[in-house]
Amino acid sequence: MNQAPEGLLPVLIDAAYLVAGVLFIIGLKRLSSPTTARRGNQLGAAGMLVAIVATLLHWEIVSFVWIIVGIIIGSAVGLVLARSVKMTAMPQMVGLLNGFGGGASALVAGDEYLRFAAGTIDAPIDVQTTIMLSVMIGAVTFSGSLVAFGKLQEIVSGKTVVLPGQAVWAPIFLLAIVALAVWLVAVPPDLPLYITLNVAALILGVFLVMPIGGADMPVVIALLNSYSGIAAAMTGFVLSNNVLIVSGALVGASGIFLSHIMCVAMNRSLSNVLFGAFLGKVMGGGGPAALTDGKTVRDITAEDAAILLAYARGVIFVPGYGLAVSQAQHQVRELSDLLQARGVDVKYAIHPVAGRMPGHMNVLLAEANVPYPQLLEMEEINPEFDHTDVAVVIGANDVVNPAARHDTGSPIYGMPILDVDHAKNVIVMKRSMNPGFAGIENELFYNDNTRMLFGDARKSLTALIHEVKAGV
Amino acid sequence: MLAGLLISLYVFVLALFVGVEIISKVPQMLHTPLMSGSNAISGITVVGAVVVAGRVESPVSTVLAIVAVAFATINVVGGFVVTDRMLQMFKSRGDKR
Q1: CA within 13 Å, CB half, A326
Q2: Structural domain boundaries of chain B?
Q3: pTM, to two decimals
Q4: Which of B5, B74, B90 minimises the CB distance to A78?
Q5: What ipTM did this prediction achieve?
Q6: Chain A contact for B24, CB < 8 A?
Q7: pLDDT tens digits for range A148-158
Q8: CA triplet B85, B88, B93: central angle to 5 degrees?
Q9: Which residue among B11, B29, B39 sits closest to A101, beta carbon to beta carbon?
Q10: Dihedral angle computed from the Cα positions of residues A322, A328, A332 and A333, in that order, rounded to the nearest 10 degrees
């Protein structure tokens, strides 16, 4: 770092950074209620603007040309991405954006190293250490996020991809990277070695994410989000910049918190999600085959289902990823409007890991104009299934599997589920009898009070709307 | 130098606690916007990238810096805009837009 000049300027810039940090904190705080959330996000954006404008006054800046070029390119790409993305694709969008953030951190730290190597600045051990951390975390975040994006976008196989012997050499590879970083701090600047470290960290990001299945990607994205926060904080240490440290810590905390919530909702440990595949402890197999042996599923026509719904007192919709895949959120809303017009009490039950990231179903249903007070979380809605006439499961599977409650042999045993089987009637909309991502049979489908409505969720819902409108 | 690092660490640790405290109060319904919004905040590295891009040193360094600014700006602009798009859809009653 160049020595700050005497005078008011550095103080002013630091004061502006303080304002930005406070705006970030207030903004995040307002995200705790849907009525204030939008304002909160805008406050965060305002904080970012304050920070950027203050930075433009920085004494080391001699030319604005390249800054403007970078900002124009970035804003254009960012705007196009944000405006065009479908709500169903939100998880991979967050992953992608996150990758860019991590990449930027790595590049900034890399630039500091270049100056150090060129002799422009002197970097003491602590600065060098944070440069290495920033580069490693940033590069892993970058490549890992791109793989996560690819998996969710289905460009890369969503299956777990494990190379032979990965359990043995992956930890060795990680240790080698850390050793290389320590070595780089110990010796005089060495550019080729430094580039090797970058490449190795990029490769590590790929190897860390490839073995994780597509369904677990949201946990990975939340975790990578926290890495990019920590990378930003490390960059803050490098540049001794407090706003970077504060915001990095905020983001780091949020990412770790969210990945923890998702793991709790799936009743799995974070290490099982991350390393389960190549440690050979991934869930699957076994399964409650005995429970479903000899039983058959019964299907129902759209016509009969419509009658069941139209004459019910209370209906609870249980949306899952199938709803997102077939983009059926508008049809659900239309059907529930029709039912409500007939005096049916309609609610939605949202499981913490329904969809592809926490809160994903809420966003999709909000897009279809479903009022958020109708969307209830698992703890609130579970007691209500007992006195509900019809529960409609739309493309959800493992989160409604009763085996999680009682079958100790089931891979999902202990995972909190929605008690849809307690409803008087259950209609399950499903494309086929293929089991969900966990590959587990679902005994719910074989229950006496369950009827299957096979087909694409959107088509089935459209048929139901048609039947209800036809005046059952 | 070490004293400076320690102060930075203080700030970091305290901010971590503030982060956990605030974020644990966000309801599940808003977790997706929370993730994309906090993700936008992590684009704060744009500040570092801007300083780097403003120094005129070597061509290599300039190229790195432009890419860094562009990446961080994508993160910031994309993140805040997409979060806003999501949040404006949350309605307490079923009124049309």
Answers
A1: 21
A2: 27-89
A3: 0.87
A4: B74
A5: 0.93
A6: yes
A7: 999 888 888 77
A8: 145
A9: B39
A10: 140
